[in-house]
Structures are given as structure tokens and as C-alpha cells.
Specification:
There is one protein chain. With 281 residues, this protein is α/β, with parallel strands linked by helices. Helices cover 39% and strands 20% of the residues. Helix 2 links the parallel strand 2 and strand 3. Helix 6 crosses helix 7 and helix 8 packs antiparallel against helix 9. The longest helix is centred in the last third of the chain and has 22 residues. The N and C termini lie far apart (40 Å). It binds adenosine monophosphate. The site of adenosine monophosphate (AMP) has 17 residues, from helix 2 and strand 5.
Length: 281
């Protein structure tokens, strides 16, 4: 495994691989890798000859009062995990390499990015689409793997990829969870034991909604009311949103859901830790 920090080196490497007829897969991450990230690597491995994992804590997707400076940075451990997982190249540029002084071009998806995360983190998706567009241009992958854990991110990137004709095959990986149901996340490191127990209610609320749909419930208001009620019983947990949206457009579903097409998405503060989770209904 090789670690690359320079954009030009990464570009010439993948250009060479492409001319040799090798298929290249990209797994974009912000590091602090866990089993969820590594499950994306496994999926990439099955689909391509050469797997590139990018590790980059992207400053442009954090708001001014968000956790950019305290976001966990553990590159040595990430490199070891990638090596074990059979990654071929880790692309780990620094912020100046990606956004040199005077940088002024951004990619904005104007529709899917607006609700949910977009409403409470206004500049977030502009940063995500910008960095993913740059990564697509730098790595020129045949396919890229993203997690359903970030359902709106997947929808926004799929749209950007189509609108801007990147021609990258977007593969969506299921959410990996701890044995008690908590969705794996780099931000789980911030949780104390007590907060972690409280955080489980996000998954419990989603599971309840899935159960209700399995038993025939279709009404959006009933599903949201039940999930909200469950979460409301937890003192440390404050709901940012509990929404049922179309899984492709992220538009709110009105009235009744069509099973398989809707996603229940939840964002909540557990004390000062912001967590998101979702399930397809
Ligand atoms: P991040 O490092 O948080 O930006 O995540 C990098 C990629 O890993 C994104 O495509 C995420 O959706 C995905 N990911 C994060 N957590 C999980 C998880 N628990 N299961 C599957 N994929 C995940």
C-alpha cells in the first residue's frame, strides 16, 4: 500500500492505471476509520482492480461553529486499517493542497441539498459536492462507494454525478451498526458511556417505524409521531428533525409512504454531539 499526498502524483498514477486497463474504485472518507468505512472498502474491492481510499477532513463542509478542529485525526491508525483491508492507495492530501490560497470555485447542488442536513447545516453540501467533484477529477475512478448512513449525501452526489457527467458508477453501501444498533460513526468517539446509551434511541425509533410499516402502517404522521414520542422520552436527546422523505429527491413524503421509496431520516443532539441515522421504510 502506498500513501499519496500530492494531487499531481495521484492524477498521474490513476491515469497510468487507466491506460493499463485497470478499473479504479474510490472510497472517500474523513478518516478515523471504523468497520463501516472498511465495509465500503470491501465492496470496492469486489468491483475494481485498484482501491483508493481518500482520507481528508474537508474544511469546507463544516460550519463555523462545528467540530472541524476537534474532528478525530488518526492517520497512522487509518493507514494500518487500510493496509489490513487490502487498500492499494491512500490519498491523504493536506488542506492547502486541496484548497490553495486564493481558491474560489465551488460546486452546488441546488435542490436535493436544501432540506434536512442542508437546512440545519447551510454550507455543508456545498463543501461535500465541491470536495467530491475534486476527488473525482483527481482520482478519475470508475466507481465510488458511499454509505447509506449519509442518505442525503448519497442522493446529492448521485445527482451531481449525473448533472455534471462525471460518469462514475456510484455504489451505495448499507449502514453498518454496532451490535446494539448504534450506527457506526467517527463522531461516536465523542460520546460518553451515558450519552452512548441515550443515542441508541435513534435506531430504536427507526426500528419502530420499520416495524410499523411491516405491520401495514403507511401514514407519515403516525410514523413520525411514534418515532418522535420514543426519542422525546430521552432527556439528553434533542431532535433536530425526524422526517420521512423520498429516498432519491429528499422531498417530504405527504400522506402515505410507498414502501421501499421512502426514508425516515433523523438528526438529533445527544447533549453536544450531533448524530444522524436513517432507515429505508
Ligand atoms: P465519513 O468519514 O464520515 O465522511 O464517511 C465516509 C464514508 O463512509 C461515507 O460514504 C459514509 O456514508 C460512510 N459511512 C460512515 N459510517 C458508515 C456506517 N456506519 N456504515 C456504512 N458506511 C458508513
Amino acid at each position: 500500500m502506498q500513501t499519496i499526498t500530492s494531487i499531481s502524483e495521484m492524477q498521474s498514477l490513476t491515469e497510468r492505471l487507466r491506460t493499463q486497463g485497470q478499473r479504479v474504485g474510490l472510497v472517500p472518507t474523513m478518516g478515523a476509520l471504523h468497520e463501516g468505512h472498511l465495509s465500503l472498502v470491501k465492496i470496492a474491492r469486489k468491483n475494481v482492480d485498484v482501491v483508493v481510499v481518500s482520507v481528508f477532513v474537508n474544511p469546507t463542509q463544516f460550519g463555523p461553529s462545528e467540530d472541524f478542529t476537534k474532528y478525530p485525526r488518526v492517520l497512522e491508525a487509518d493507514l494500518a486499517a487500510c493496509e489490513t483491508a487490502g487498500v492499494d492507495y491512500v490519498f491523504a492530501p493536506d488542506a492547502e493542497e486541496v484548497y490553495p490560497k486564493g481558491y474560489s470555485t465551488y460546486v452546488v447542488e441546488e435542490h436535493i441539498a436544501k432540506p434536512l442536513e442542508g437546512a440545519s447545516r447551510p454550507a455543508h453540501f456545498r463543501g461535500v459536492t465541491t470536495v467530491v467533484a475534486k476527488l473525482f477529477n483527481i482520482v478519475r475512478p470508475h466507481c465510488a462507494v458511499f454509505g447509506q448512513k449519509d442518505a442525503q449525501q448519497v442522493a446529492v452526489i448521485t445527482k451531481m454525478n449525473a448533472d455534471l457527467n462525471f460518469g462514475v458508477e456510484i455504489i451505495i453501501a448499507p449502514t453498518l451498526r454496532e451490535s446494539d444498533g448504534l450506527a457506526m460513526s467517527s463522531r461516536n468517539r465523542y460520546l460518553t458511556n451515558t450519552q452512548r446509551v441515550e443515542a441508541l434511541v435513534l435506531n430504536q425509533a427507526l426500528r419502530k417505524a420499520v416495524e410499523m410499516v411491516t405491520s401495514g402502517e403507511r401514514r407519515v404522521d403516525r410514523l413520525i409521531a411514534e418515532a418522535t414520542h420514543l426519542i422525546g422520552q430521552h432527556r439528553r436527546v434533542r431532535i433536530i428533525y425526524v422526517s420521512i422523505v423520498d429516498r432519491l429527491t429528499m422531498e417530504a413524503v405527504k400522506g402515505e409512504i410507498t414502501p421501499g421509496k421512502a426514508v425516515m431520516a433523523i438528526a438529533a443532539w445527544v447533549d453536544e454531539v450531533r448524530l444522524i441515522d436513517n432507515e429505508i421504510l
